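Schema walk-through. Below, the input block comes first and the output block second. Nothing else is stored per chain. Lengths vary across the set, and this one has 135 residues.
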Amino acid sequence: MKILTKEEARGYSPAALAFYGDCAWESLVRRRLVENGSLPSGSLHKQSVELVNAGFQSWAVDIVQNILTEEEADILRRGRNAAGISVPKSSTPRDYHRATGLEALFGYLFLIGEYNRANQLFEVVWNERQYKREK
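--- output ---
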């Protein structure tokens, strides 16, 4: 797969970045769930649904926003503020727009080949989730 330059990736609409970022985020979630042990696919699916939704992704924005570079924060902001996004009934507009911003960021990072940075941000979210679950 061709790695894009930052300029090329920034040329994509926030919706296109979020479209790809949705896949990138879900891939990170699914990989982590599988790495945690062999479980029936139904159980894996149930767990992934908890982590691949607007509410959780909106929460994840709170976790990573203070460690983003200026460039990353700009991509997230562009995704969050994208026009023409239809909010499903299963989500609040606030959560859905913030989740779209997070997905746009992950789409951007994957397109430019910054997999390590995407993994780093995902790890921060995952670790915070684990910490909250243990409390």
